[in-house]
Design a protein that fits this description.
alpha+beta, 4-stranded antiparallel beta sheet, 153 residues, Glycoprotein, Type 4 Pilin, elongated
Length: 153
């Protein structure tokens, strides 16, 4: 008796490879978008955290938003030398500066950022004070970073 060979034909294998290729062509761009959005969110939140806390404290005490870094200095929000923070004091791995003129902050990513889609881009964050609750709200309102990558608060 002859034993029949079993296995996949070349056509079946090519169909499987084509299906995997189609799935990869959809998944890879989505993954890259996800990574860029994650980098933007992580770097933005980490660099803004001390400033957000100081603004919230000031607003809780005076029921208004501070006008700039000097108002926060009066509340003890100072660098190690006891001087007011500046726009470049909040730099992180990929964040160059956070310029602030109340109620708008402009966060700038460094030009040599690890993620090329963030390099040299800006995000504009607007602060507002909820008069009913006294909570400080932060919202991303613009910038040169593509909207699909912008962090959400």
């Amino acid at each position: 008796m002859k034993k029949q060979q079993s296995g996949f034909t070349l056509i079946e294998l090519m169909i499987v490879v084509a299906i995997i290729g189609i799935l990869a062509s959809v998944a890879v761009p989505q993954y890259q978008t996800y990574i860029t959005r994650t980098d933007a969110m992580t770097q933005t939140v980490a660099s803004m955290s001390p400033l957000k806390n100081a603004i919230a404290e000031y607003a809780a005490r005076y029921a208004e938003l501070p006008a700039g870094f000097n108002e926060l200095l009066a509340e003890g929000f100072a660098d190690a030398n006891g001087t007011a923070w500046s726009a470049t004091s909040f730099g992180m791995d990929q964040v160059e500066s956070i310029a602030w003129t109340s109620p708008t902050m402009t966060l700038t990513y460094i030009a040599a950022a690890d993620n090329a889609k963030l390099a040299g881009k800006t995000v504009i964050i607007t602060t507002s004070l909820n008069s009913n609750t006294g909570a400080v709200l932060f919202s991303v309102t613009g910038g040169t970073l593509e909207p699909k990558y912008r962090p959400k608060f």
